[in-house]
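Database export, one record per block. Field names are fixed; values are copied verbatim from the stored entry.
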Amino acid sequence: NEDRVVELKRPLGVVLSEDDNGNVFVETVAPRGNAARTGKVKEGDIVTMCSATFGDQMWSTRGVGLTRVLAAIRVRAGPTVSLVFEDAVEGKRKASMTTKQAKAMEEARIAAQKKKDSLLSELEKDEEKLKKGKFLGLF
C-alpha cells in the first residue's frame, strides 16, 4: 500500500476536509470530475503532499490544515496540481507507528539523561576525592 502521486487537472473534482490534527483528506470525489477520471483518488484518502507553486517540487501537507492546502492548490502555476494520497488505513497505521517512535525516542532520551547524570555524579565524587587527596589514580 504505497502513497499515490496523482496529477490532477483543475478543477480537481474533490471536496477536501480537515481532521482534528490538521490533516487534509478527501471528503467527496465528484462522480465525473477530474479526480474520479484518474481512478486513483478515493473518499477518505489523506493528502500527504502537494505541488509547490512552480516546478516539480512537493511539500508535506501533514498537519498544515485545509486553508494552506487550498491556497497552495489555488496559487499553483499551470493547469495541473500533483497531490500525494495515502489511504485512511495506511494513514492510521503510520500515525500509530509515529506515536510508538516518539515514545521510543523519549525513552531513549530519558535513559541517556540518566546515564549522563550518573556519569556526572561519579565525576563529582572523583573530584571530591581528588580535593581531599584520597584519589589513588594512575596519572
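Remark 1: DSSP finds three helices and six strands in the chain.
Remark 2: The mean pLDDT is 86.
End of record.
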